[in-house]
Amino acid sequence: MKRIRVTYKAKADQAQENQRLVEAVFAELAAKNPGGLRYASFKQEDGVSFVHVVSIETADGSNPLEQIDAFDAFTDQIGDRCDIPPQVMPLTDVGTYHFFGD
Is 2-91 a domain of CATH 3.40.50.1820? Predict the structure, then answer.
């Protein structure tokens, strides 16, 4: 099981486009329903800072997001949309309460 948190700050004029791209990822996930993935995305109150929390629970450790075309589109030029680029941080469970559906 792998869990990560990704944070970044979009440029003010790119925040809406970034959100649209994130929403497209969730729409495709809903349509394809890949197994072994739990994923949440949040926009902070400032309207430009985003947090993604991902849990990958596949038998082979593969990332189901890599099968999602909208995820490719989202990540394609993310650096150009950001004032602060994505920071990926592995997470270690300490405790959760129904956060990952357990």
Answer: no
